[in-house]
Amino acid sequence: NAGVMQNPRHLVRRRGQEARLRCSPMKGHSHVYWYRQLPEEGLKFMVYLQKENIIDESGMPKERFSAEFPKEGPSILRIQQVVRGDSAAYFCASSPAGTALLYEQYFGPGTRLTVT
Amino acid sequence: GNSVTQMEGPVTLSEEAFLTINCTYTATGYPSLFWYVQYPGEGLQLLLKATKADDKGSNKGFEATYRKETTSFHLEKGSVQVSDSAVYFCALSASQGAQKLVFGQGTRLTINP
User: Fold this and answer.
1) So what's the pLDDT on residue B96?
2) Per-residue pLDDT tens digits for B23-61
3) Which of A16, A18, A90, B35 is surrounded by the most beta carbons within 10 Å?
4) Share of chain B above pLDDT 70, in %
5) B37 in Cβ contact with B87 (< 8 Å)
6) Tens digit of pLDDT for each residue in A34-81?
7) For residue A98, what pLDDT is reported?
8) Whose CA is closest to A104, among A116, A113, A93?
9) CB–CB of B36 and A55 under 8 A?
10) Cβ contacts (< 8 Å) between A110 and chain B: which residues?
11) Which residues of B78-106 are buried (b: 16+ CB within 10 A; e: fewer)?
12) What residues of A are in the B interface, CB distance below 8 Å?
C-alpha cells in the first residue's frame, strides 16, 4: 500500500510565478491536510479538506493561497504570485476520517519550495 | 491559543546514552499528545501518542507520559542507537474533535557511534 505521495519533491519558482503542489493521499483515505514548515520552525497547519469540500482553512493566508481536493485526482495547493517568504517545506497528510484524536495522520515526504 | 514548546536542539549523544527531549504544551480542555519522527528525506511518522492524562505512549523503546499537572509530554529512551538520529516533533490535537495538529519546532537528534 503506497504511502502519501507528493510531487514535485523540489520546486523552484521566480518571484511572481505560480506554484502548484500535488498530494495523493493513501488508498482509502478521503481526508487531506496541508502543513507548512518555514526554516527553523515547526509545522503549521494550513488547511483541511475532504473530497470536494474545504472543512477548515483557518491556517491559510488570506491572499494568493488556495487548495482543492477534487472528486478525482490529487489535492492541489496553489500559490499565486510567489514571494521569497513562501520558501518553505509543504507537507501533506491524509487520514481515513477527520479527527486527529482517533485517527493517525499519515504524512508525505514534503515539497520543498524555493522562491528566487 | 494552543501551543507546543520543545527543547531546543540540536542534541548530540553517544550510542547507548539516555535520551530526554522535553515538551510542554498550552491548551484548553483535554488535548491528545503525539511524538512524530522525521528521518532524512522522509515524511513525518507517528512514534507514539497519549490521549488522556497519565497515559503512557510507547514504541520502539521510546516512552512519553501525559502529565496534566505539569502540562508536559517528555520523550525518553533508555539506550539510543545511531539509527535513532532524526528530527523529533511534539504535537497536540485539541479536544472536541479537532482535526488539525499543532506542532513544536522540532528537535534534531544525532547519535554518534
Assistant:
1) 62
2) 999 998 889 999 999 998 788 999 999 988 999 999 999
3) B35
4) 96
5) yes
6) 999 988 778 999 999 999 999 999 999 999 999 999 999 999 999 999
7) 63
8) A93
9) no
10) 43
11) eebeeebbbbbbbbbbbbeebbbbbbbbb
12) 3-4, 6, 31, 33, 35, 40-45, 48, 55-56, 58-59, 91, 93, 98-101, 104-110
Nearest residue of chain B to residue A4 (CA atoms): B43
B48, B58 Cβ separation under 8 angstroms: yes
Phi, psi (deg, nearest 5) at residue A22: -115, 145
Kindly report, residue by residue over B61-104, the tens digit of the pLDDT. Answer: 999 999 999 999 999 999 999 999 999 999 999 866 667 899 99
The rounded distance, in Å, linking the Cα atoms of B27 and B4 is 9
Determine what percent of chain B is predicted with pLDDT higher than 90: 77
Q: Is the bond leading into B40 cis (omega within 30 degrees of zero)?
A: no
Q: In angstroms, rounded to a whole number, what is the distance separating the alpha carbons of residues B27 and B76?
A: 22
H/E stretch holding B76 reads strand B75-77
- Secondary structure of residue A18 in the 3-state scheme: coil
User: Three-state SS for A85?
Assistant: helix
Inter-chain CB proximity B93 and A99 less than 8 Å: yes
CA distances from B74 to A2, A21, A70, B66 (A): 32, 34, 40, 8
Residue type, B79: S
Residue showing cell 488570506: A62
What is the Rg, in whole angstroms, of the alpha carbon atoms belonging to chain B?
14
